[in-house]
Design goal:
By secondary structure, the protein is of the alpha/beta class. The chain contains 6 helices and 10 strands. Bound molecules: adenine (ADE).
Length: about 240
């Protein structure tokens, strides 16, 4: 099957550099209120879409990309809150795996973030990113953003903007995650269920602590731009690397 990359960002600022400046747009198709931009980044076929914020929006958007646009790979791009003091605003995070931090069946004996399945299905916990996409992302960071810090580790997602040191500490202690956002695990989960390779690439807009709302407002545009630059480089490389 011909490679076609589905690229999901939650907000306009996370995709508009790609759709307006980087991609050769061929068509826009609207489904479920979402605008799917079909075209090319370099020689690579892409479908770029703004999912809206949160895990429900992200999951349904990912499933539409798979069912209606036949994407072969999924990439989630955008901004995130850092959970590690060594990861600074503007830095890039490449997810090794993703978990839902707001999924909690602990009264039933499951660890936080663990999803028991029915019947013989596996117990789902973390969703591992595709090694090939991770290595392409790391190379794109080295080539396109050599001055920016790059980090690899677990990303946790939930339907909450994390903006207190207490919430932040819980995510670090419970999940050992290095950044948090609101869509990645839902996209990873959808990719896993459909057997599609995925990676999450995020740039840090805030430290998810008590000042996160102010930091976010100040740095969201710069962080989103860092991420879009690396992503455009990475996706152009995909057809060459295969
Ligand atoms: N996206 C960017 N910063 C975030 C935060 N602190 N919490 C959740 N999502 C985010």
């Amino acid at each position: 099957m011909k490679t076609r990359i589905g690229i999901i960002g939650a907000m306009d600022l996370e995709i508009e550099k790609l759709t307006k400046e980087e991609m050769n747009s061929e068509n826009i198709i609207t489904k479920a209120g979402l605008r799917f931009h079909i075209g090319k980044l370099g020689d690579t076929d892409v479908v770029i879409v703004r999912s809206g914020i949160g895990k429900v929006n992200a999951a349904l958007c990912a499933q539409i990309l798979i069912d209606c646009f036949q994407v072969t790979h999924l990439i989630n791009t955008g901004i995130a809150g850092s959970l590690d003091h060594s990861i600074n605003i503007g830095d890039i995070v490449i997810g090794t795996d993703a978990m839902h931090h707001d999924l909690d069946l602990s009264p039933l004996g499951y660890d936080p973030g663990i999803l028991p399945t029915l019947g013989d299905g596996p117990v789902l916990s973390s969703f591992p990113a595709d090694p090939f996409l991770r290595s392409l992302a790391a190379r794109a960071c080295r080539d396109a953003a050599p001055d920016i810090g790059v980090h690899e580790g677990r990303i946790v997602s939930g339907d909450q903007f994390i903006s207190s040191s207490e919430q932040r500490t819980r995510l670090v202690k419970t999940f050992h995650a290095i950044c948090t956002e609101m869509e990645g695990a839902a996209i990873a989960h959808t990719a896993y269920l459909n057997d599609i390779p995925f990676v999450i690439l995020r740039a840090i807009s805030d430290k998810a602590g008590d000042e996160a709302d102010v930091e976010f407002g100040t740095f969201e545009h710069k962080a989103a731009e860092n991420c879009a630059n690396v992503l455009a480089h990475m996706v152009r490389d995909i057809s060459r690397a295969q």
